[in-house]
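#onboarding

Welcome to the new folks! Below is a worked example of what a typical request in this channel looks like: someone posts a single protein sequence, and someone else replies with the predicted structure as tokens. Don't worry about understanding the tokens yet, we'll cover that in week two.

Example request:
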Amino acid sequence: MPEVFESKLGIDQKKVEKARQLAKDIATDVVEFVKKYSTVSVERTICRFFGIDGVNNEDIPLPNVVVDHLKEKGALQDGVALYLGNAILETGMTPQEIAQQIADGKLDLTKLPMHNIDDIKGIIDDLSDKAIKTIDERKEERKRLLEELGDPAQPYVYVIVATGNIYEDVVQAQA
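Example response:
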């Protein structure tokens, strides 16, 4: 039991400890609840992080296609990383190739036999390391360019374009 201090405000320390314990219990419950769920945007970001890019024949971004595929199968709560890692082990394809196969209707991630979770985690770790290396390289390139070209005068002027389709955003931003 923690050391009890005299309260300058005359607050009962037993009540304070009880309130702290209740808050801890609530926070633990919330964290456990949230861990079971993800969001479409987080899962799409993971797809992009793992190198999935481009669009299908309907101009829908491939990360959206992969996430929508898992959502339709009721498997999104398990996370796209699990299914991509498993598919890589099963097929030997890259995340980009897997996404294209899903877009073409040739691959169902939920129908593949599930591999050992430690093997899947190894694949996910490798993909993450590669993505982080790419990000670090881009940061270094940006730093080099700033040193070479200088930082433009501030404030920066920009326009936010957000249609939900990054490729359409580019077209609108250029207009």
